[in-house]
Each structure stands twice: as structure tokens, then as C-alpha cells.
Design a protein that fits this description.
Largest sheet: 6 strands, antiparallel, barrel
Pfam families: PilZ
Protein name: Type IV pilus assembly PilZ
Organism: Oleiphilus messinensis
GO molecular function: cyclic-di-GMP binding
Domain PilZ: 5-119
Strand order of the largest sheet: 1-2-3-6-5-4
CATH architecture: Beta Barrel
CATH topology: Thrombin, subunit H
Structural class: mainly beta
Helix content: 10-25%
CATH superfamily: predicted glycosyltransferase like domains
Length: 129
Amino acid sequence: MKSNLRYHHRIRSEIEATLLVDNEELCSTTIANISRAGIMIECNQKTLEDILPNQHQIAPKKPVQVEVEFNLPLSVYHEVSVKAYCNVIHTRRLSKNSYQIGLEFAHFANEDFRYVEQYMHMHAPTTPA
């Protein structure tokens, strides 16, 4: 039996993000969920093909890396800009022209990971006392 690979809690979201490959803006997309380990984005077939051109399988030892820029709301009045470099981990086809792409955080610009940590802490599930 497979062990549960979900080490981090995921927070559903509808955060707009910009994807860049080789410092060129590729597209805008939506982050469907976020965790301390990475994000899942939703996209169409064209975006998937732009990210993974001529590639049918994801090779773990040769990861495809994309740059993701997005704003995280840390309060009602305050958003912070986050820039992360991510490895494509998996893809999932939802329908004819709808896909999800799992992206694992590889590293962050500056210390942007602390913003993800803060966002996750704000949205952590509460356990009853």
C-alpha cells in the first residue's frame, strides 16, 4: 500500500499567478491550492504544452522549472509579492481542455518563503480543544 505523500496541509485558493520560462512571461493562471511544499495550478492545453513542449512524461532527474509570481493576501489590507522557482512534479487532465499541474517549490527569490509560511499559518486548520 502506498504511503500518504501529502506531508503538508493544502489551502484551496483562487490566487492569480504569472508563469515565466527563461525569464519570458508565458501566461497568467490560477493557483488552485498552496502548501509549504508547492502549488497546484489550473490551465488549458496550450499552457500545458507551453510549459512542457514535446514532452509526454516528466523525468524526475531532469525537472522542468518555471518561475511563478503571485501576490499573497496576508491581511485584508496587505498583500505581498512572491517569486518562486518551481519544478513540475505532475500533470492531471480534468477534461478535454482543462489540466492541473503540480509544482514543487525549488527555491524562492529573496526570503519569500516566509510569506508562504505566514499565509499557511493564517489558514491552518484549527483543532477543537
